[in-house]
Amino acid sequence: MPQTDFSPTPHEPRPKRVSAADRITAHQSICGILCLFEGMEWRSYRPLLIPAIENLADITVYEAHGGYAQLRRALFEMSPAQVIEEVKAANIRGRGGAGFNAGLKWSFMPPKKEGIPRYLAANGDESEPGTCKDRRIFEFNPHLFIEGALIAAYAIQADAIYVYIRGEYADWIDRLQKAVDQAYARGYIGKNILGSGFSTELYLHKGAGAYICGEETGLMESLEGKRAYPRYKPPFPAQKGLWGAPTTINNVETLAHVPLVLRMGAEAYARIGAPEHPGPILYGISGHVVRPGVYEYPSGMLITDLIYEVAGGLRNGKKLKGVVPGGSSTPILLPEELDGTRMSADALRKVGSMMGTAGMLVLDEDTDMVRFAYRIAAFYKHESCGQCTPCREGTGWLKGILAKFLHEEATFQDIDLLLDVGNQIEGRTICALADAAVWPIRAIVKKYRSEFERRAKPALIPA
Prior knowledge:
Layout: H1 20-26, H2 30-37, H3 59-64, H4 69-77, H5 80-90, H6 102-107, E1 119-124, H7 134-140, H8 142-156, E2 160-165, H9 170-185, E3 201-206, H10 216-223, E4 247-251, H11 252-256, H12 258-264, H13 266-269, E5 273-274, E6 277-278, E7 280-287, E8 293-298, H14 303-310, E9 320-324, H15 345-350, E10 359-364, H16 369-383, H17 389-406, H18 412-425, H19 433-447, H20 449-454
Parallel strand pairs: 1-2, 1-4, 2-3, 7-10
Antiparallel strand pairs: 5-6, 7-8, 9-10
Helix pairs in contact: 4-8, 5-8, 7-8, 16-17, 16-19, 17-18, 17-19, 18-19
């Protein structure tokens, strides 16, 4: 796959952006918000996560547009249980890949006990190939995430928030740290926040670029200063998480939705996009499209609209060969499977794929699917932590077999061997990294089998 530049392209037209005045007007009342979304057509959508407000990363600008008002409201007008119920009713589906209801996840935390700390971990590792949505929040609206994390910490009564970010995001780490420092200076983080009696601290932690640290228990091991070996579950993090204390782990984008829910109300939020997977989504569209980038639109968008209207279609008038809808670990879809298929967890499940992180990889007709499969296998082989034998050895087998096709050494038996090895790996490891390696390769082999057959020999022929 070619490297993709996610920066704005000055010569390409972009979807219409709204002015700051329009943004303020839209947020003036719940009624105004309802008018925006009832029966809304996606082309008229106004961004909520990353609105078109200049210098929104500065806390003064953020406060001028209602920033931290929902934190104040939660602290002084709502109990932790009420916050959890509101978020649960909104059905914020986790944006990190699992798609689990965030409020329901918070409710798993046990009752608070004197002397036992509690933690919130925000997952900003973002190591899934094709995914770069969280860094847009860090760059353009970090205070929305910070406010959401603080509200979540209040809801679960967390004593500290740990934000785990991949170390390669050096610039975005600096930007987020600046925003955190501003929030501390305003009294939004620390002891006795705003005089409410609630206290919590917020720390940034730089990872070392390991994919496995995106897995929640691997992330906790890394935060504790250990090698990121995923843990057995149960016990689940809510019962025994960081340093043996109750812990909740949420994706950065997931937490950024929390202030929106409190500001709009769960009912209004749930009207955005797909009913079973509501709210805005940061779609990362990369690959062979005219306008690659990260775009905010409602959930449930037609994949064809995202490719041909939002991203401008395929480059150089090429034909579409396949789409990986949610990052490299999700099964690829053929062009004929895209008709009427929407970007929501339930809709993609029906066609045999997953929402994942909404990081779409668009492939044109010239893509070598054997080499594409090899690139995926090589990535997961490299990123396997090595704890579980089926993953440690199995990902190496997948990479090795696919290398035989590239070197014209494979036989027809190797095609079925790929599938057989995948079956021996899937579901036999502590975490889902091995499954993530198997799912895309299995789909590629089954859907593009003829390309593998053209690279294979009927039998080994002596030189």
